[in-house]
Design brief:
This protein has a single domain (about 5-135), classed as Rossmann fold. It is built from six helices and five strands. It has helices spanning about 15-30, 45-50, 70-80, 95-105, 120-130, 135-160; strands spanning about 5-10, 35, 60-65, 85-90, 115. Strands 2-1-3-4-5 form a five-stranded parallel sheet, sandwiched between helices. α1 packs parallel to α5 (about 120-130) and α5 packs across α6 (about 135-160). The longest helix is centred in the C-terminal third of the chain and has 25 residues, at about 135-160. It is globular.
């Protein structure tokens, strides 16, 4: 693929399994992406470098995933004007609620779009929608995706519908 336009950034390699659906979804739409492990706490200098140069490096959207305190998406959002979508990762304690609340409770002026716990596919689809604002080919692929989803539901309905 060409130069990445979506950055998938996670706080730890252990988050990769959660983020694979995002990567797969972007691939299905032909969206070039990159995956990085950058810790807001252990490598803040790398987070600063990555986010502050993201636009210059050709990125248009960043997806940031982290568990626990989940500061990564907020740190990235604080360092760039690009849209940042947070993916709270389910941890061993609180079932990801701690991560979710960390991401949605950003201070005024530092927005992070946030999807459900471990919902990286939705994060990728939200990024696709953002990219489709200016890219008709992406918007057309998204329209076809939505149509296929609707057709699948109609088919399921036909298979299970009955009257008693």
């Amino acid at each position: 693929m060409s130069n990445p336009i979506v950055g998938i950034v996670m706080g730890s390699q252990s988050d990769l399994e959660v983020m694979e659906p995002a990567a797969k979804t972007l691939e299905e739409f032909g969206i070039p992406y990159e995956i990085r492990v950058i810790s807001a706490h252990r490598t803040p200098h790398v987070a600063f470098e990555y986010a502050s140069k993201a636009r210059e490096n050709g990125l248009k959207v960043i997806i940031g995933a982290a568990g626990g305190a989940a500061h990564l998406a907020g740190v990235l959002a604080g360092l760039t004007t690009l849209p940042v979508i947070g993916v709270p990762v389910m941890g061993k304690s609180l079932s990801g609620l701690d991560s979710l609340l960390s991401m949605v409770q950003m201070p005024p002026g530092v927005p992070v779009g946030c999807v459900g716990v471990n919902a990286s596919k939705n994060a990728a689809l939200l990024a696709v929608r953002m990219l489709g604002i200016e890219d008709k080919a992406v918007a057309d692929k998204l329209e076809a995706f939505k149509k296929a989803q609707a057709e699948a539901v109609v088919k399921m309905d036909q298979q299970v519908s009955r009257q008693g």
